Amino acid sequence: MSAGLKPASWAYAEEFVGEDEVLAGARARATEVGVAPIGPGGGAALRFLAAVTDSRAVVEIGTGTGVSGLWLLRGMRPDGVLTTVDTEAEHQRLAKKTFSEAGVPSQRARLINGAALEVLPRLTDGHYDLVFCDGDKREYADYLAEALRLLKPGGLVAFDNVLWHDRVADPAQRDPETVSIRELGRSVLERDDLLPLMLPVSDGLLVARKL
């Protein structure tokens, strides 16, 4: 860990912003159905990003059981709408339960069941403040292309799992997911129309602002 950071310090930072019973319930349901949601530190980062951008329209790829979606909704404007896409209808049913338990009005969460690369092209160009990607890692490059089309100038795109369980930093790891995430990082760095930042929270969060 950087500068000799001890595991206890990393855990302290990761859990600095606590989660309530609703999020704990969503995490429990995620475990039951085999979903790995973003960690508490990453969730807090998403809430912060949604808040500082005063987000009214957000796209999420990978609904899961609603952990990341609830963090995003809690940072968005009170009239903001989250559009969240997932291939698993059962996961989205559980996400609706999470949002309902949190008191989120139903009109603030638009859940679309389907493959991201089939759904995203149907969304409105230049309409969104933030796009959060936590779907198929092998499709991250395609998600970036879609996000840049969907985002307003100054909007943010964020990718979860960009450290991918310590595999991305190890050049010996060459599985398809690791290679895809590694290539995404290079692509974001090389673009003149993006201002990038990698946050070592949870399993890594790559954020870039569309210039």
TrEMBL record:
Gene3D superfamilies membership: Vaccinia Virus protein VP39
Keywords, in A-Z order: Methyltransferase, S-adenosyl-L-methionine, Transferase
Record has Transferase as a keyword: yes
GO molecular function: O-methyltransferase activity; S-adenosylmethionine-dependent methyltransferase activity
Keyword Transferase tagged: yes
InterPro entries in the record: Cation-dep_OMT, SAM-dependent_MTases_sf, SAM_O-MeTrfase
GO biological-process terms attached to the record: methylation
Protein name: O-methyltransferase
Biological classification of the source: Bacteria, Bacillati, Actinomycetota, Actinomycetes, Propionibacteriales
